[in-house]
Design a protein that fits this description.
With 724 residues, the chain is α/β, with parallel strands linked by helices. Helices cover 56% and strands 10% of the residues. The two termini are 51 Å apart.
């Protein structure tokens, strides 16, 4: 809703209202006059004119002294929108020309948050350009980049978080350009930032710590994925390569394996440090991808070395004396190969070849930048990119959305678009139609979202007919299913909506698995996540057909997942299916209590048993305990028992928590149980979120289960059993 809609009477004589209305009106005039445009130059000229009008009239209105805070904010946003329209088609002058507009916004306290967001977006956009530059050009431009943004630190109104972000981005960019720190960009940037940002004086400069590590002793230890304790000191006399990596960087691993293969007959040792993910998942990743050397997970280390050394993707080269030779912020890069040539001169040729391959990998341009290569479409593609980003930066406003959609419509009529550019614009149009649909869904929660998504689906269908279908359009289609889940929760016609969701999901999954129209999603994770969310929603519904629907859904979907050769995903859904089939059936669980005793829920037949999957780090779990304590005290003398199954990786933390709260029920540790060879029941039952609770009757059969905490439902189930 336009916050100035109260001024929309065009017959008002009040000058302020006339100006405000004119600013609002001009935001959509382009649509009315767009039919006259027949070239990229015509379209760009229209946007420049529109932008100039918006800026001029916003300034006139902002000069008034009787504006409300809401009006000032709206006008500030419209001024920025006008600036993007005015300057956005010219990449060479955009940054310079928009700066005065940005500076004027800083003087409007009501627009402080928008100003911070815009500054951060601009910084991020400029930062991306360094990846496309040669080293010398990047160094030169970084100095300009740094000089532009350092003055903004501590200059943003109440912008501590924005200050920190700017500082972090400047330091990260300096580190990416000056990977080994030898050019001094990291240290000089840190020194300049220190004068502007006082929190840095308290030691928040881990990147500097890493750069200063050469010739110092390396400190590093932890437990490997195969259970061995690793200390860098034990490898004295050998050259050690320590890559910091993330399972998300799967393209990084093949190059690392090639380097390991080159050095396999030398005294070089590889110790990988996984900065994110839990130990079990990292172990599976290492096994699946046959990662070279030893892998240590942050979760199993005595220290968070990624934070200590200011990077989760760095690489350390440690000499035979245990001291750091060099560090590289970019991980495995050409510099690593050059340094290794000095240590292993007989490996010069293969290391040179690997360096060339790394260079080709690093030089691949970002997808969107690669499209902006031909005039005159280049200018409009640049404008479209900026308008779309600006739209998402500001509060939702229909006129802005219409502008972006209108630009895509106009561009698709141009004869000089390449096929690649046409694909890009088409997908952007679909994305903005999806944004409009999401807004409509929020405003009309009583309507089936699929009906409000009709324009999006038609656009996707038309694009597919022209051979345009990719992972983004797949994602947009998949995202429709989430508002349908919300609609399912309050619609009375749950059966029909469940059928529609299942039909749409299976259609998407089948199309992506078959590579229909050139689509093959790179990972099953997004559709798998939806399947989990759908089954969770069904489980939480107070609907008698929920369990049957969930089982039917899983029986239809699991074979399709298996056909994709996604066995881990299929196994996850199979475990969820096992959970759905539990109601009315015996529940299995065995394990080790904190005191070392073995326990089995089968031993509690004749009692009512509450099995609670939880962890000390889970706020919802902790929040549910006061009610569980009350229920335990209320019913324990009537044959009620609680078995709390902790999935904590840290047993000491679990013991400490138990000592603090002195719970009287049975406390099972998943870690201690695994050490004794018992099943991982969290995985066995496909538990995706905690707390997850099961209530067993006196025969040991499941009569109630819930994901997350709902004290009312649990208490009702207990009252039903105990007759109170």
């Amino acid at each position: 809703m336009n916050p100035l809609s109260k001024y929309s009477d065009m017959y008002t004589v009040n000058s302020l209202r006339s100006l405000v209305f004119f600013v609002t009106l001009t935001a959509v005039t382009l649509t009315a006059g767009s039919s006259a445009a027949n070239s990229a130059d015509d379209i760009a000229a229209q946007y420049r004119q529109q932008g100039e009008t918006l800026i001029t009239n916003a300034d006139k209105a902002l000069a008034r002294s009787d504006l409300t805070a809401e009006e000032k904010l709206y006008l500030a946003e419209m001024k920025y929108w006008g600036a993007v329209c005015r300057f956005g088609a010219d990449d060479k002058t955009f940054n310079a020309d928009i700066e005065p507009v940005i500076s004027s916004l800083q003087k409007i306290p009501e627009a402080a948050q928008q100003y911070q967001t815009i500054i951060i977006w601009m910084l991020h956009r400029e930062q991306e350009a360094f990846r496309q530059m040669h080293r010398a050009d990047a160094f030169r431009d970084f100095v300009r980049f740094r000089n532009k943004y350092i003055p903004l630190i501590s200059g943003i109104s109440e912008g501590v978080s924005a200050d920190f972000y700017i500082m972090a981005e400047l330091m990260n960019t300096a580190a990416s350009l000056d990977s080994d720190g030898s050019a001094g960009l990291v240290l000089s940037t840190a020194e300049q930032i220190k004068t502007k940002y006082s929190p840095l004086d308290r030691g928040n400069l881990e990147i500097v710590h890493r750069v200063q590590m050469p010739e110092k002793e390396m400190v590093f230890d932890g437990t490997s994925t195969d259970g061995q304790f690793i200390d860098i000191k034990d490898f004295r006399g050998k050259t050690v390569v320590i890559p910091f990596f993330s399972p998300a960087l799967e393209t990084y691993n093949p190059l690392l394996k090639k380097l390991s293969s080159i050095l396999r007959d030398t005294d070089c040792v590889f110790i990988n440090y996984a900065g994110d993910g839990n130990a079990k998942d990292i172990g599976q990743f290492v096994t699946k991808n046959k990662c070279p050397g030893i892998t240590v997970c942050r979760q199993e280390s005595s220290n968070d070395y990624g934070r200590t050394y200011g990077s989760y993707r760095a690489l350390f080269l440690v000499g035979q004396d245990g001291k750091v030779i060099k560090t590289y912020s970019a991980g495995l890069c050409q510099g690593v190969c050059e340094e290794l040539k000095k240590i292993f001169p007989d490996k010069t040729e293969p290391l040179t070849q690997l360096a060339a391959e790394i260079e080709q990998t690093e030089m691949k341009p970002a997808h969107s930048d690669a499209l902006l290569h031909k005039p005159p479409a280049k200018q409009l593609l640049s404008l479209l990119d900026k308008l779309q980003a600006a739209y998402h930066l500001l509060l939702p406003e229909s006129s802005r959305l219409e502008d972006v959609l209108n630009l895509t419509n106009q561009m698709l009529t141009l004869p000089d678009l390449t096929e690649q550019e046409k694909t890009f614009v088409t997908v952007q149009r679909i994305e903005m139609l999806a944004t409009a649909a999401v807004l409509a869904i929020q405003e009309q929660p009583e309507v089936n979202p699929a009906k409000l998504y009709a324009d999006v689906e038609q656009a996707i269908s038309e694009a597919a007919a022209e051979g345009i279908r990719n992972e983004k359009t797949f994602s947009i289609e998949l995202n429709l299913l989430y508002p349908m889940l919300e609609f399912l929760k309050h619609t009375p016609d749950k059966g029909e909506i469940v059928k529609e969701i299942q039909s749409r999901y299976i259609k998407l999954l089948t199309a992506s698995a078959e590579g229909k129209d050139g689509v093959r999603t790179g990972s099953v994770s997004p559709p798998l996540n939806f399947a989990i969310d759908f089954t969770r929603t069904l489980q939480e519904l107070r609907w008698e057909g929920a369990l049957t629907a969930g089982i039917g859904f899983l029986e239809a979907v699991i074979p399709l997942i298996e056909e994709r050769d996604e066995q881990p995903a299929a196994e996850t859904l199979t475990k969820i299916k096992r959970r759905f089939l539990l109601t009315g059936k015996p529940f299995e669980l065995e394990g080790i209590l904190l005191n070392g005793e073995e326990i089995s829920v089968a031993d509690f037949k004749g009692k009512v048993v509450l099995v609670d999957f939880w962890a000390t780090w889970c706020p919802s779990c902790r929040g549910s305990f006061p009610n569980k304590v009350i229920q335990y005290e209320k019913y324990k003398d009537k044959g009620f028992e609680v078995v709390a199954y902790s999935v904590d990786a840290n047993v000491d933390a679990l013991r400490k928590y138990q000592e603090q709260h002195k719970f009287q029920w049975k406390n099972v540790s998943a870690v201690l149980s695994a050490e004794k060879g018992f099943k991982d029941y969290e995985k066995f039952y496909g538990i995706w979120g905690i707390p997850t609770t099961y209530l067993l009757d006196r025969t040991g059969k499941v009569v109630f289960m819930q994901v997350e905490s709902n004290n009312g439902k649990l208490n009702e189930a207990l009252q039903k059993i105990f007759g109170e």
